[in-house]
Design brief:
Elements (H helix, E strand, L loop, with lengths): L2 H6 L5 H22 L18 H33 L26
């Protein structure tokens, strides 16, 4: 299921929940394999900051959203072309799945 389905699916719809399950499963697998010493490790990076203002978080979200959508659109275009080219390969050489994504989460801290 392409990312566009998740982004355009109605909140709580079967399509959205199916994509959420697949996406979280991939992230969990990557994180667990990294903890277990998978070689090479899966790319998994994050930044975390506390004691920011709501305006700071809003500015970071704007920057993150723009950079993330540009990256995902570029990767999606490349993957679509590669998928077309892969149809020429024998079936046993095209059994790989690729997933990349990001998240941004913020909330007001419960502690002072």
């Amino acid at each position: 299921m392409p990312a566009a389905v998740f982004l355009s699916a109605a909140a709580g719809s079967e399509d959205q929940l199916a994509y959420l399950t697949q996406n979280l499963g991939g992230h969990f697998d990557a994180a667990a394999e990294n903890v277990l010493g998978h070689t090479p490790p899966h790319f998994e990076r994050a930044v975390h900051y506390t004691e920011l203002s709501a305006d700071h978080v809003a500015a970071l979200k704007t920057a993150y959203d723009a950079a993330q959508i540009a990256l995902l659109e570029d990767l999606s275009a490349q993957a679509a072309e590669m998928k077309k080219a892969a149809k020429e390969l024998p079936k046993e050489r095209r059994g790989f799945r690729f997933g990349a994504g990001g998240y941004l989460y913020s909330k007001q801290d419960d502690t002072p």
